[in-house]
Records
---
Amino acid sequence: MSDPKEFAAGRPVVLRGGTVLTMDGAEQVLPRGDVLVVDDRIAAIGPALAVPEGTVEIDASDGVVMPGMIDTHRHMWQTAMRGYGADWTLTQYFVWYYLESGRHFRPEDIYAGNLLAAIEAIDAGVTTTVDWSHGLQTTQHADAAVDALQAVPGRFVLAYGNIAQAPAAWTTAPEFRDFVGRRITGDDMLGFQLAFDVTGDPTFPEKPAFEVARGLGVAVTTHAGVWGATNDDGIRLMHDHGFMAPETVYVHAATLSADSYHRIAATGGSVSVSTESEQSAGQGYPPTWALRAHGIPVSLSMDTSVWWSGDLFSAMRTTLGADRSREHLEAHAKGETVTHAALRAEQVVGWATRGGARALGRDLDLGSVEVGKKADLVLIKNDHSPVMFPLLNPYGHVAFQAQRGDVHTVLVNGRVVKHDHRLLGVDLAAARRTVEQTVEHLRSTLGEEAWEKGMNPDVPETTILDNPYTYTDYHSAGTHGS
Ligand SMILES: [Zn+2]
């Protein structure tokens, strides 16, 4: 069954006898369902399906079949530095990447990080990843980012960004326009967004970048509600100038007032919650408890592998934990006891799948297991694991029991990219060599002392570091003890 050639010829594929989580809105669960894939689409769902001659059979019994997961915010270029910043705060991250060492990344280093991140994503059943690519100092860097994404059989969205320049500068450069014309061709496997932050500077220096996004007809994704860096001022500027739209994706949205949440809700945008990141880096408390109260749609994300993995099982688990933790604490402060959890495992599985599709404007063809939709599918099954049975509550099993090692089979756009726990058509050894060259380049450029120190960098005392951008001197008074 694990012969890659078997999957190569575009034959139909059927996943037989799994517990199928459709995530179809009605949240139908088929206890022993088959899912038939023909070409790039889901062709049929049901028990004991008749299938075309030559269909490849995959035994999904004792497993869970679900939509491919969707990560709506990941700085894939940083994966070449996997785990380096495990003990960083957000301020140290800003010092290392934005102010000191990010400029040393060459196009080939962007390629290396993206390549490894893309492979890691499909291995974990993340079939669509938004590459929040803010290390694109030149369009050569951007070409390298796309080259890597196109070298891996996953679905990606390039969210083009550049922390080295003002958004108004890079978005209006002729070479950026040329890049978009050359590389963004409407390919269904490579979406496109603009990625930049709104500092809150009252002169609204980011306005020209929003106008470019509008002219191109693409969504903006922005780190909003990040303690000290972006706040209500940015949301109000976006709103006052008419740049809050249903396709806008607000990342974190943690340190915001009710007024900002009202503006997001009223304009139909969604929030990408990176719970593991918010818990550890300091953007603010993971906001799902507030987003639920305001009826704001949620998707999940892993942010960066310089701290965390690209694994949405972690996102689901930490998001449930943080939301419930908040509820319990607030109840206890009032002398009360939470007797029924408001946030359910089913909801976070929905956020990891359909929520991502909705955020990307792809709810018509991604995010659920329904006939006619794109065949982006995950089979969670591990016959060697004592944790795969009994399978009593499939949503709870996905959110709290399963992990990336249990991802047995992955299909993207109808193509089997992982089967029997092994990636197909991916040269991991080559990716390793590519990443090693990047690590060697950075290590030798920085020098051994700075390399070691970078894992716990000093914070320059003379600079207020909350706003890491150098194109404006604006700093919010809100986080400086005013
Ligand atoms: Zn981020």
---
Amino acid sequence: MVTTPLLPSDYLDLVSPLRAGAELRGRIEAVHPETDDAATVVIRPGRGWRGHTAGQYVRIGVDVDGVRLWRAYSITSPTNRQDGRVTITVKAILDGKVSNHLVRRATPGTLIQLDQPTGDFVLPQAKPAKVLYLTAGSGITPVMGMLRDTEFDDVVMVHCAPQPQDVIFRNELHDLVADKKLRLTEVHTDTDGKLDIARLDELVPDWAERETWACGPAGLLDAAEEHWTEHGVQERLHTERFRPSIVVAGDGGGEVTFSATGKTVDADGATPLLDIGEEAGVLMPSGCRMGICFGCITPLKAGAVRDLRTGEITEAEPGVLIQTCVSAAAGPCDIER
Ligand SMILES: Cc1cc2nc3c(=O)[nH]c(=O)nc-3n(C[C@H](O)[C@H](O)[C@H](O)COP(=O)(O)OP(=O)(O)OC[C@H]3O[C@@H](n4cnc5c(N)ncnc54)[C@H](O)[C@@H]3O)c2cc1C
């Protein structure tokens, strides 16, 4: 009663936001530029942090212009880092709210929300004899977490970026090459063109024998999955996607009502309801934004929505929950937010 409307924990948060028992948070302690549009953010997680496995990602909640936005970022620091801090490395994308904020505006001292690390794009317990890392652009981040964490006898990396100066962690990669801990092929797509997956025969002749971790844009990963499957070695390929593969966009959208907030907006049949809600200023829960973590599930009160990955229509029924990050309006609907 004494502290109403704030809770005692709100006061504790002011003096000790990273304490044990507090909602998990982290403090940004440094931001190091990596390339013109990418930076590594050094975070000190609060006491409840359980640690990660190399290759996993963490969801972070960042306040941008007064709105809390959640995004996923791969952890780029090794698991045995001694100072208890972790790093993520973010590439600013065109019109990207969180990525530009982190790369260009985040300052040391800022508190962010953290989830526990998660993800199954990880190294196995038993070390494979030969490893291939196939990456492009910011897709290098989970792999850098692995490279910094675990040494293998025989590691080859094929990495694509528009130009040499766009290669994130380039100096560190070249140091590993000089120490004979890595064989690296850089594909500079501005001059070499996009990597034709068939070129792997020439770049890494024994690619099919290698346990492979691939992360990059959908085009590269789709081609890799097809290639590995064609050669019957798909079980050796592990992929991580930063965006969902949208295969269907419905023709018509509809009027979307967020009944708890009392807002109604028009939506097309291709834009995720999560984006529609955020754009309308509705407080939407969110997570990976690609349909894997279920952090965005919300009751569908009325109407119908379309799953953008499969085209499947879900109609409102009592208890029906939808993933707003991969669902678009399929006619008028009411989302309980
Ligand atoms: C498991 C996982 C791990 C990830 N790890 C990293 C990482 O280590 N480093 C990193 O930089 N990013 C990573 N991402 C992507 C990251 O979560 C955000 O999607 C990205 O930073 C864009 O967020 P934003 O708020 O800047 O863009 P938004 O404001 O959400 O979007 C702006 C525009 O860009 C488009 N867009 C959204 N995401 C992407 C994308 N990834 N690529 C291209 N266009 C996009 C949107 O459709 C929209 O048109 C990861 C994503 C996942 C799911």
